[in-house]
């Protein structure tokens, strides 16, 4: 799954050169057409196929499987390599965090729901290009989709151990006993590095590309595993070297737990109320810097007559969510309880033409109120709330409640 660019495309072209029939899957129609055109020019037009699908969606992955099923009675090899870096947290149309959806969930669905097609082949193999053996920290069982404290690289790397457990779970309860499941770390390869990067990360990626193996060399381990699948039901490799299946990311109990969590999640899709987070004209890294500074923000809520009501507030953040306080019984609170749509505008004082307008949905969090009041007072005054009020009695607030802005769209010039 994947194959419109990078190593997936290179593997597909290699297979065509060796006389095989190949299907690539991706959502970019132009890249798919370019692949088919190149295949035709190489005399392989009848053996090259492109299935257009959004693999970040379970419905998209299943639609792709249905198209493949209509084309072939059997599949010899399934190569899983689709992933996409996102500097800011995004949620798919089905309500799933994008990294988790594309890098893990689509691979789970494809591995299990194509089992009958693979079982019909003589020597079937799944090659999951995910990075086994790389240090990636512990599984975030409490928050698999990084709803709190999103960090782009951490979220992407989290897909590695999830896929390790996918492979272990596949071998533990195999939908096909013929399939050999292979986890592969191909090393650092100068591939497409598909993603949406902030400027600082983009610069680091270019530096990595300069010293990485070229794609033609990087696909060598994949090709070798396709030509000679290992005998074991599950194996892991760092390029051409086997990796021992030890450590927390290869534990059978953890694999069973993840399989249970995944199957439960699949029964809940699509999850209503979760919307894709879109960012335009704003650097995610710069926005975090601004929100972490003691900047005054303008909160806009909607009055009963539809007109805007604006107030200046202190703000903090939790991952990409924006936190602020409102007085109990205030106009802001009444507006938000009636209509939770809200916008927060921040303008760095040192860059008067720079701004970010963060729009989304307000969620009241009473349990957070006391801590947030103390955190904001310390951030903006340098002293705890009690000390601040003792020094400045007029600053004492009445009852307050914490508000979390869950962003859906951010636009601006920052």
Automatic annotation (TrEMBL):
Keywords: Oxidoreductase. The keyword Oxidoreductase applies. InterPro entries: F420-binding_dom_put, NAD(P)-bd_dom_sf, Pyridox_Oxase_N, SDR_fam, Sec_Metab_Biosynth_Oxidored, Split_barrel_FMN-bd. The keyword Chloroplast does not apply. One of its GO terms (molecular function) is oxidoreductase activity. Residues 285-365 form the Pyridoxamine 5'-phosphate oxidase N-terminal domain. It comes from the Bacteria. PANTHER family: ALCOHOL DEHYDROGENASE-LIKE C-TERMINAL DOMAIN-CONTAINING PROTEIN, YALI0E05731P. NCBIfam families: Rv1155_F420. This is PPOX class probable F420-dependent enzyme. The lineage of its organism: Bacteria, Bacillati, Actinomycetota, Actinomycetes, Pseudonocardiales.
């Amino acid at each position: 799954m994947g194959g419109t660019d990078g190593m997936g495309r290179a593997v597909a072209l290699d297979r065509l050169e060796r006389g095989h029939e190949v299907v690539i899957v991706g959502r970019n129609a132009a890249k798919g057409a370019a692949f088919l055109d190149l295949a035709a020019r190489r005399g392989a037009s009848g053996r090259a196929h492109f299935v257009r699908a959004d693999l970040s969606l379970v419905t998209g992955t299943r639609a792709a499987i249905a198209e493949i099923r209509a084309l072939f009675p059997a599949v010899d090899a399934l190569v899983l390599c689709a992933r996409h870096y996102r500097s800011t947290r995004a949620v798919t149309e089905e309500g799933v965090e994008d990294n988790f959806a594309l890098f893990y969930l689509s691979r789970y669905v494809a591995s299990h729901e194509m089992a009958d097609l693979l079982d019909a082949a003589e020597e079937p193999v799944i090659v999951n290009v995910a990075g086994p053996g790389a240090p990636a920290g512990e599984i975030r069982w409490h928050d698999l989709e990084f709803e709190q404290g999103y960090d782009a690289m951490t979220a992407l790397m989290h897909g590695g151990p999830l896929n390790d457990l996918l492979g272990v779970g596949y071998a533990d309860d195999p939908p096909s006993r013929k399939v050999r499941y292979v986890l592969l770390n191909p090393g650092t390869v100068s591939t497409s590095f598909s993603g949406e990067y902030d400027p600082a990360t983009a610069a680091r990626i270019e530096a990595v590309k300069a010293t990485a193996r070229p794609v033609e060399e990087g696909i060598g381990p994949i090709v070798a595993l396709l030509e000679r699948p290992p005998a074991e039901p599950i194996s892991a490799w760092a390029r051409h070297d086997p990796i021992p299946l030890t450590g927390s990311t290869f534990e059978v109990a953890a694999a069973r737990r993840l399989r249970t969590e995944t199957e439960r999640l699949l029964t809940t899709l699509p999850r209503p109320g979760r919307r894709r987070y879109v960012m335009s004209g704003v650097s995610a890294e710069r926005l975090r810097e601004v929100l972490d500074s003691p900047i005054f923000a303008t909160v806009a809520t909607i009055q009963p007559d539809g007109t805007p009501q604006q107030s200046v507030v202190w703000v903090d953040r939790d991952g990409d969510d924006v936190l602020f306080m409102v007085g109990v019984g205030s106009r802001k609170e009444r507006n938000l309880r009636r209509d939770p749509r809200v916008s927060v505008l921040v303008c760095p004082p040192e860059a008067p033409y720079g701004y970010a307008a963060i729009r989304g949905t307000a969620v009241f969090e009473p349990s957070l109120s006391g801590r947030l009041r103390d955190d904001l007072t310390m951030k903006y005054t340098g002293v705890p709330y009690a000390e601040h009020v003792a020094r400045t009695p007029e600053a004492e607030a009445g009852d307050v409640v914490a508000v979390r802005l869950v962003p859906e769209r951010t636009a601006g010039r920052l």
